[in-house]
């Protein structure tokens, strides 16, 4: 390249400074990966450090992440760029931090002094990330340094990060609880059978032939043009099958291929069951039988085009692999370890034990998911390395390949089945539960629900310095119905200035069954309203007629409710973006004149519907429906019913928001409308949403569904026009 006039660092710049910000960067990225994979590229690049430093300091975060990826591909030593790499590993971008960590881990111990320096002199954000980076690099050896930093650190956010890191270290330092796996019998490869079994096997093989011949005659051969017409099984062929069942290797069994397999096997669960009912057959015979029937191949096959999931065998699709035939046979012999028992037969013949794991991970409806929780958890207990790989994939919304996304989802499904979570996974689950992508957070939280120490840790997080983590902890404790958290929440509420956290605390306290009456203060409400409105009305609500709000009075004093309070409730509900009214709103509404607050709720509802149907979509302002839900009465029901019948086809999000709003109305007409839609509606999603709303309403009121139905007796089951259709046979 130099000979033809190019710069000596051209290749380094091509790799590390690839133009990935162009409209279609795939070609540039591909060339960079090829260049980084060239032998001795790492040694060449070290002669041109300036190009690498320029890439690591690029203004665009995407370019910096690309440079970090290339350092990982070429297996570059991080030592020459340690300070820059630590900067990247403590940056704001989660993806950038993850990419930098992969490079730093190549020489973790050498990076520790640079990370310690960042933990001492960096910004508050950098110091917080450095605390976690320490345990990612050296694990339990970071404890002493972090404890010293905790004593010195003054910033609340950094102290919280260090405490979280120390909490993870405490988990990792806890001795792993040994899971007692059920003992399995040994697999005997040489397993002779009595000659009487040969006769039974010959009878079943003939049934296979008859099935295949029938399918062939039904023109099924057109579906399998490469398969010739089935031929009757010869006595010699039956002898070879019988021999393979007793002594055959995996390759020998698979090589014995009757031509009618593909015509008969997928339609022959009864014949397979008949074979399994032969009392002399043991596990090794059944494994060989699966190979003879071509349900599992002997050669490895990559299920994915990337090396992230190990190579494995492909489990052929067949009715006999479901829980109706094979699973009962295995469970009868090993009630709690049926999957491990089946796999022991595979491994006895040298077949990968990961066969079933890969099938379950890449197919959400695999029949093996029905083999029982204990069977699945015991099976994966022996394959934790596969789960390690799934954690390394990253969050599934960011995974490129669809099968890897599926596998990542199954990770949480599997971990939920573990009676005791392996300690190595708990810190990673906490990271996802508190800081992960929205789609994965609830999955990780459910895995941790029954983990020892989870609720105690959540109690501590109620007072975390990060409002987002506070809200997650509050909502999590509320879902767990942890009433012991009520005092903690009440104490936090008394000193909590952040409005979003206050709202979460109030909702949590109320749902856990405690009163929020002590937190109602009219003068303080007016002050909060005036403070909240100082920034003005949000531009998105510029269409709302705040100037013509109905007059509302306090029920006890008959004094008017300040316009600022009414306006603030609307603005606050918009900001919360949730049609579910907040506990504070609902409690204050109970103190207003009933007729007037219903008129106020009707005004809000009609204004929103008018904007949505006459001007432009108001779905982004659906939060103000919370005010209508808390205040509205019977008069809003016909309007909502008419909207649902008119716009069910092209305003689904708005229809769902209206249903959610109705859930908070105690009016009989609103309850009846929900029940009617839940029982019958032309759009399935709306009907299913109404069913969920009915269940939520019954749960909130402490009613059974039957008691909920009793409260609609005034309608007597009559339609809107006052009729009731009775169907009796051919007449109605």
From TrEMBL:
InterPro entries: ARM-type_fold
SUPFAM superfamilies: ARM repeat
Name listed for the protein in its UniProt record: HEAT repeat domain-containing protein
């Amino acid at each position: 390249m130099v000979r033809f006039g190019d710069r000596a660092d051209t290749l380094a710049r091509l790799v590390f400074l690839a133009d990935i910000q162009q409209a279609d960067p795939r070609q540039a990225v591909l060339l960079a990966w090829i260049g980084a994979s060239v032998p001795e590229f790492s040694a060449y690049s070290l002669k041109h450090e300036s190009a690498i430093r320029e890439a690591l300091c690029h203004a665009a975060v995407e370019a910096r992440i690309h440079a970090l990826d290339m350092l990982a591909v070429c297996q570059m030593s991080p030592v020459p760029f340690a300070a820059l790499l630590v900067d990247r590993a403590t940056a704001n971008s989660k993806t950038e931090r993850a990419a930098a960590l992969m490079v730093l881990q190549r020489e973790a111990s050498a990076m520790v002094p640079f990370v310690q320096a960042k933990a001492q002199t960096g910004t508050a954000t950098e110091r917080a990330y450095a605390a976690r980076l320490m345990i990612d690099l050296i694990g339990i050896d970071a404890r002493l340094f972090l404890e010293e930093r905790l004593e010195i650190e003054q910033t609340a956010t950094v102290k919280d990060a260090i405490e979280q890191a120390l909490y993870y270290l405490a988990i990792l330092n806890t001795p792993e609880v040994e899971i007692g796996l059920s003992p399995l019998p040994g697999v005997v490869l040489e397993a002779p059978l009595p000659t009487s079994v040969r006769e039974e096997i010959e009878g079943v093989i003939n049934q296979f032939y008859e099935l295949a011949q029938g399918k062939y005659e039904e023109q099924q051969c057109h579906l399998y043009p490469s398969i010739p017409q089935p031929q009757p099984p010869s006595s010699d062929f039956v002898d070879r099958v019988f021999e393979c069942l007793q002594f055959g290797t995996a390759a020998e069994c698979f090589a014995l291929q009757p031509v009618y397999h593909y015509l008969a096997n997928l339609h022959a669960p009864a014949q397979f069951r008949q074979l399994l009912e032969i009392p002399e057959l043991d596990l090794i015979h059944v494994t060989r039988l699966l190979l003879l029937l071509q349900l599992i191949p002997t050669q490895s096959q990559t299920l994915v085009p990337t090396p992230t999931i190990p190579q494995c065998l492909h489990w052929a699709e067949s009715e006999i692999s479901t829980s109706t035939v094979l699973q009962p046979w295995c469970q009868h012999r090993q009630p709690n370890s049926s999957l491990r028992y089946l796999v022991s037969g595979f491994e006895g013949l040298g077949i990968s034990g990961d066969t079933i794991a890969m099938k379950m991970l890449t197919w959400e409806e695999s029949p093996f998911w029905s083999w029982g929780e204990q069977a699945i958890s015991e099976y994966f207990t022996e394959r934790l390395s596969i789960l390690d790989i799934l954690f390394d994939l990253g969050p599934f919304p960011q995974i490129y390949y669809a099968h890897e996304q599926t596998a990542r989802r199954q990770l949480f499904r599997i971990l939920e089945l573990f009676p005791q979570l392996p300690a190595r996974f708990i810190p990673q689950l906490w990271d996802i539960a508190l800081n992960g992508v929205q789609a994965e957070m609830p999955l990780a939280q459910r895995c941790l629900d029954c983990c020892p120490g989870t609720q105690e840790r959540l109690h501590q997080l109620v007072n975390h310095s990060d409002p987002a983590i506070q809200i997650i902890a509050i909502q999590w404790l509320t879902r767990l119905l942890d009433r012991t958290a009520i005092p903690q929440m009440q104490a936090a509420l008394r000193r909590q200035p952040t409005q979003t956290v206050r709202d979460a605390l109030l909702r949590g306290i109320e749902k856990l069954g405690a009163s929020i009456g002590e937190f109602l203060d009219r003068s303080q409400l007016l002050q909060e309203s005036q403070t909240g409105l100082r920034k003005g009305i949000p531009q998105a609500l510029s269409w709302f007629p705040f100037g013509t709000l109905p007059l509302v009075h306090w029920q006890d004093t008959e004094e008017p409710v300040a316009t600022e309070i009414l306006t603030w409730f609307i603005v606050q509900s918009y900001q919360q973006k949730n049609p579910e009214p907040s506990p504070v709103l609902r409690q204050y509404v109970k103190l207003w004149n009933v007729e007037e607050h219903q008129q106020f709720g009707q005004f809000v509802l009609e204004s929103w519907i008018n904007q949505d149907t006459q001007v432009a979509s108001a779905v982004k302002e659906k939060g103000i429906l919370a005010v209508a839900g808390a205040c509205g009465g019977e008069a809003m029901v016909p309007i909502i019913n008419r909207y649902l019948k008119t716009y069910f086809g092209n305003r689904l999000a708005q229809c769902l928001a209206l249903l959610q709003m109705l859930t908070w109305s105690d009016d009989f007409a609103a309850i009846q409308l929900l029940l009617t839609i839940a029982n019958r509606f032309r759009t399935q999603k709306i009907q299913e949403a109404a069913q969920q709303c009915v269940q939520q309403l019954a749960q909130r009121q402490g009613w059974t569904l039957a008691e909920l139905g009793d409260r609609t007796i005034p309608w007597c089951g009559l339609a809107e026009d006052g009729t009731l259709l009775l169907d009796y046979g051919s007449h109605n």
